[in-house]
Amino acid sequence: MALLGAGTFTLNWSTGEHGSTLFAVQFLSAGWMRASPYSPYMFTFSIPAGAAMAHERYRRWRAFLRRPPASDAADPEVVRPLP
Fold first, then answer.
1. Count of structural domains within the chain
2. What pLDDT digit, counting tens, does each position of 60-82 carry?
3. Which of 15, 33, 66, 81 lies 20 to 30 A from 27 at CA?
């Protein structure tokens, strides 16, 4: 899932023309192409949606670990892992 990108941004290397597509899926989130040997390069990239979702889940998990548990707060025998 982290290898897929959502939305596409395109840049024409020779003219500087750029564009974007909101509804597109791109594998590996980056690429380039040429229509022929005499055509300019077109570079494309997209936001890695799967990696963004994984990062958000990791951030929430770390915040959950840092929160002190309500029932174990008064118990000195409970050992929590360090952040």
1. 1
2. 999 888 877 666 555 566 566 66
3. 15
User: Whole-angstrom Cα distance, residue 81 to residue 64?
Assistant: 12
- Let me know if residue 18 belongs to a domain: yes
Give me the domain span that covers residue 9. Answer: 4-66
Which residues 6+ apart lie within 8 Å of 57 measured at CB? none
Cα–Cα distances in angstroms (integers) from residue 79 to residues 39, 50, 69, in the given order: 64, 34, 11
Q: What is the model's pTM?
A: 0.51
Contact assessment for residue 12 and residue 40, using Cβ atoms and an 8 Å cutoff: yes
Is 37 part of a structural domain of the chain?
Answer: yes
Output DSSP code: residue 60.
Answer: H
Looking at the chain, list the stretches that DSSP marks H as alpha helix, in order from N- to C-terminal side.
49-66
What kind and span of H or E run contains 4? strand 4-12
